[in-house]
Amino acid sequence: MTQRPIRKAVLPVAGLGTRVLPATKAIPKEMLPVFDRPAIQYVVDEALDAGIEHIVFITGRNKNAIEDYFDRAFELEETLRAKGKTDLLADLARSTPPPGAASFVRQQAPLGLGHAIWCARDVIGAEPFAILLPDMLTMAAPSCLSQMVAAYQQVGGNVIAVEQTDDPSLYGIIDPAARDGRLIEMRGMVEKPAAGTEPSNLFITGRYILQPEIFALLEQQGAGAGGEIQLTDAMARLMQSQPFHAVEYDGRSYDCGDRIGYLRAIAAFALADARYGGAAAAALTEALGEAARKRPVAAE
Ligand code: G1P
Ligand 1 center to residue 39 CA distance, Å? Predict the structure, then answer.
């Protein structure tokens, strides 16, 4: 069956980043570098790699650096051109979406992820679309969203990516029913279940392909976990009237929302870098060796 193409993606970037303060006091958390580029660049690359043509950023106060980052920087480009730094110029060009391919919508109050997505309704219109949460970086080949688009082309409807976790209380968790390879049918899903009540250990990794009917459900969605309007609650309702699958994708997610997840992401992306991976491995091994030598010997 031919499915309607996924042309647009929503990237909610309005969050305050309180879990990584003070780093995020004056810089949007999405602009913090993961090895050699801002975290948000990996997510935009993942979207473009999966065939996305237009990115809708849901922003908030103090997020102007993101809009500037995805714009051209004339003075910088001129300086690099004058100095003959063509490699750097090409890098800059690669990180800039084509004219007209990015929109910025303000979420005026932090009412939750569901509300942030609802703010994109006019820009998305009546077509299926993707959502990528920029806190979560994925490492996969093909990319996580590309694997989801392939699944969507088979089964249509709505598709979310999932992965196993040791701590289901931190995430949206699915209730799996039948399984066909990596494709999972679901009975339901729940946002941040209390410890011991989780229906599985499969968490929603922050990559979604949704039908536009989600917007009407979000409009009426009351506050859920944490007192916020939750996307997961609206999806659980959408599931009652439309096909909905999860894909346990082949790859790994890195949750940059906290310090250790962020550190893991930096190490993983540095080690995977084609040019610097070897040097990164040597540097990390040396740092671990030094730390082990300094650590006091545990008492018998
Ligand atoms: C959000 C979603 C949750 C998902 C998570 C992935 O939660 O609500 O379902 O598992 O992102 O990062 P948040 O991290 O915003 O609390």
Answer: 17
